[in-house]
Amino acid sequence: MRPMFIFGEIVNGLRRNLSMFISVVLVTFVSLTFVGAAGMLQMQINQMKGYWYDKVQVAIFLCSPGSTTANCSSGPVTKEQQDNLRKLLDSDAVRQYVNDYQFESQQEAYAHFKEQFANSPIVDSVTPDQLPSSFRVNLKDPQKYQIISESFSSQPGVESVIDQRQILEKLFSAMNTASIVAIGIAAIMIVCAALLIATTIRLSAFMRRKETAIMRLVGASKAVIQLPFILEGVLAAVVGALLASGAIWAISHFFLTGYLADQYKQTAFISDAQTLWLVPALIALGAVIAGVSSLFTLRKPLNA
Amino acid sequence: MIRFENVTKVHDPRAKPALDSVSVEIEGGEFVFLVGASGSGKSTFLKMIYREDVATSGSVYVAGHNVSTLTSWRVPKLRRKIGVVFQDFRILPQKNVYQNVAFAMQVIGASRARTKERVTDVLAMVGLEGMEKRMQHELSGGEQQRVAIARAVVNQPDILLADEPTGNLDPTTSEEITEVLKKINANGTTVVMATHDDDIVDRMRRRVIELSRGKVMRDEAKATYTSLIPKVTPATGTTGEAQA
Ligand SMILES: Nc1ncnc2c1ncn2[C@@H]1O[C@H](COP(=O)(O)OP(=O)(O)O)[C@@H](O)[C@H]1O
Ligand SMILES: [Mg+2]
Questions:
Q1: Record's NCBIfam families (chain A) (predicted)?
Q2: What's the rounded Cα separation, in Å, for the pair A104 and A82?
């Protein structure tokens, strides 16, 4: 087999069939970009889980002057109420579930708030006495949140008990849903890509029916006859995959690390290097889609 | 070289068979004319040899191999031993003369150097030297058929099959094309030529196999287009002087 000859046949085929080639490139580009975006979302979810799960706590917010809940109707938390809560946290019944806890004063809450929203004008409109003080509790087993909630939510001086993990779970499940939607769109687009590749191969087989007839007549092997068609489809899909890789890298570089990471310094975002791991996967996926689609198409004789 | 044993080919069960119990043997190096009315089964006969069609019953042997039972992945190997030319030339319009002939070698993996050497030789042999760069629209019918013949023999097949190769050509050009086939046959290639052209058959005086409705009607050495033996020859025959 002569690689240069086969390569020349592919280039000839592409020249004659350029608009179909471009449409295959674009469809695989869009579908694999969705696959890549879904992959990035999953990586981001894992990244955030790893980062947050050992940091998240149960927060027992104490009544502040601005509290409106019924439990706070008697006014801001008193020194005595605070001491009682501390005793309860140190009691044997609660201690067995708790790793450690800290008290966060209104001043500390304000300092944290300023840090987290450093770039936001909201900081200027918030004062320390608007933010509640709280006990930050690290649980031995994060699943045991219910026990803390039951013991503390109705204690005098407690505004509310919040499991930060549950807030994160909501965020993660939203991200998960988004990635499933992206996979769903990608699946439809991949079906489009596969059908389009099949149509392209049929069309280009039809346009080259004279050549293939001569090839069969003079005894060219099936591989030599079919390879240009298969490689044409695979080449288009790989070009599409490269464009998709470029797109997800651009999303990662300019949007994630360039913009979001700057806006939300507390959050751990995936890096460009991590995103690049998706590139070989996308290229392989593109090549497999095209290869499978063309093998299916070529099972019927090419001369039709 | 080629042997048909009771070969029957049925395309359409409601119609008469295209070939009906044909038994024929063709030796290596022979030049054979296959004659008969349109629809008598000449093309089908040739297709059995290069396995474009498979016999419904009976066996076809080519160079010692039973073609009827050949698996499809072995067909390319058989085809490399057989060259085929047609009435309609089948030149690839976007390739020039040289590329058309070289194509037959490239697709079976011949090296560039070997291809150049063989194509140059073969183009000279069919009388096309100096026309390497011409495209199809710059060639006469006769020249196009020479390209097709060059392509058919460039891989040095044992057998050359020609299905009405002069069917689209004027008498003088037909004569020239037949001379090329004769030259190829003189080099040892077995040639089987299906034709309607009585002038050529009568002048060449080679073996003639006549088909009629799929049956072999006549198989004669050094024969003419119309059999001289049983029929009363009418006055129209220019070759009528050859009385047995
Ligand atoms: N693919 C086919 N399907 C159905 N009938 C066919 C096919 N090929 C040939 N025939 C029939 O077989 C008979 C012989 O055809 P063919 O071999 O082409 O004759 P010739 O070449 O002598 O004109 C004809 O009656 C033709 O109609
Ligand atoms: Mg015919």
A1: FtsX_actino
A2: 12
